[in-house]
Amino acid sequence: MKIFGVLGGEALSDEILRAWVDWADFVIAADAGFCNLSSAGLRPNLVVGDMDSVVHCEVPESQKMIRISAQDSSDCDKLLSVAVELGARQLSIGCMHGGRHDHLLANFASISKINLAVKVVLPLEIGVQVLPNNPITFEHFGRISLLPVVPCTGVNLSGVRWPLVDQSLAMDGLVSLSNEGTGEVTVSIESGKAMLFVHTDPSQIPTW
Q: Rounded to whole angstroms, how far apart are CA atoms 4 and 96?
C-alpha cells in the first residue's frame, strides 16, 4: 500500500499536495495536517493524533479518526505507527517543515525508527531514507546531498561529481553535502541509516 502522510508544519503548495494525494492509495493526516489538506480542498482517509493543534479548521464529524493522546510520542511518531500498522510498503511524508527546527529534527528522528525507505516531500526537494543493503538508483543532473542519520559504513555513491567508495559517514565526520548528480546515480550503504536529498520538482513523483 502507498501511504501519504501529512503533518501540521508549513503547508506545501496545492499542486504538490494534490500530486502526492493522487499517488497514494491512502492518506493520513496527523493533527493540523488535516488543515493543510483542507486548505487545498483535499481530505484524508484518516486523521490521527490528540487534535490539540487543530485550531485553524474544523474537522467534520464524518471524518474517520484515531485519537492518540500519548504525550511521549510526536505527531510524526503517531502517523508513522499507524501507517506501518496499515501495511505501508511505500510511505511519503509532507508538511514536515515549520517554524521550529527542533520539530523538524524530531521528525527525521521519528523516520529513522522504522525500516522503510520513507520519502520526505519538501518545498524544493525530495528526501528518502537510505537503508542497509537497499541500493537506490535514479537519473539526476543537479544537487544531491547524503547525510547520515546514524553512523554509516560501506557507503557508496556513484554517478556524482564527488563519488564515495566504501566510505564511513557520521554527523561528526564525513558527510556528502551539495554534491552533483551527473547521470545515473546509485547510493548504497552496508550499515546505518542516511537521508538522501535530491533537488527536484516535488510535484513530480519519483520512480525511485
A: 12
